[in-house]
Design goal:
Elements: E1 8-10, E2 13-15, E3 19-21, H1 37-45, E4 52-58, H2 75-90, E5 95-100, E6 117-118, E7 127-130, E8 133-136, E9 141-142, H3 148-164, E10 170-173, H4 179-184, H5 199-202, H6 204-217, E11 222-226, H7 240-254, E12 258-262, H8 279-285, E13 290-293, H9 298-306, E14 312-315, H10 317-321, H11 325-330
Parallel strand pairs: 3-14, 4-5, 5-10, 6-9, 10-11, 11-12, 12-13, 13-14
Antiparallel strand pairs: 1-2, 7-8
Amino acid sequence: MPTLDDPITLGAIHAPNRMLMAPLTRGRGTRAHVPTPIMADYYAQRATAGLIISEATGISRQGLGWPYAPGLWSPEQVAAWKPVTEAVHAAGGRIVAQLWHMGRLVHPDFLGGEAPVSASATTAPDHAHTYDGSKPYSEARPLALGEIPGLLDDYARAAGNALEAGFDGIQLHAANGYLIDQFLRDNANFRTDAYGGAIENRIRLLGEVTSRLAETIGADRVGVRLSPNGVVQGVTDSDPHSLFAAAARLLDEIGIGWLELREPRPQGTFGGPDAAPVHPVIRANFSKPLVLNSDYHGDDGAAALASGEADAIAFGRPFLANPDLPRRIREHLPLNAPDPATFYTRDAAGYTDYPAYRG
């Protein structure tokens, strides 16, 4: 049976262990969404992960509504990512770019006052983070059929830019209540065209985007992230087992290299007593490596591999405060505690100043 310390092949990527770094938004870019030099230090410190999945990275101005988050649509952004990927590779690591369109979670402040786009005319709950503080979300407009080819172009351009910037591949962010998830789930998608209604229609955009990415950079350099249960940023589904089984079959047919799930567990921070697991039906319908994420630690992550539930584990918040997390898990060493007050601040504090284990 595999262990967390065993190597694994994720499409074209040969990872030396099965402890992946999950995508973690940190907000250390510029207002023009350009990566900054400190990001090279941060990611290089964590290069002992089997694979680093970058923070969510915008594919276009329309799709990015998080202050100081990076993008991958301009030459300036591509050039600024190159030192980051070079630093990771120099430290012996591997890194993929997570491609992000936030859909209705983009506040109009990021769009010159225009409405964000989504599957349907809906409004996200709670408030958006903007440069001027917390503001209520605004109602999105439905993405028009005529706009979908342009959206596919944006994804393809970002994927090509990712490889130009030195990434080893990409992960499509299709989770957490963002644009593709808004199309997938029936409490956010009320369309009556070919992208709404029946499950086969609601997974259509996921399939078209993933296929375009595979055509652009090769399916073996494409991973996907889904969040198959629980309410995430107001998005949920009445029948997640059927929906995500169909999505898994579709992604398997396209031939992506690996699939990651941010799936809340009942005992976890994002879970609850009714968070019934969906990953077993995904496992039954997806033949490539399956990565589980959400509140795992060394022991329960190892147990998930030993039981055959997963092929690798993506660790999120533990990697924030423990740049040497694989060693700490391997040797059962104590962990640094992350400081939530510095998750999205602008400097090195709580970013690159967490120490590796001494001894």
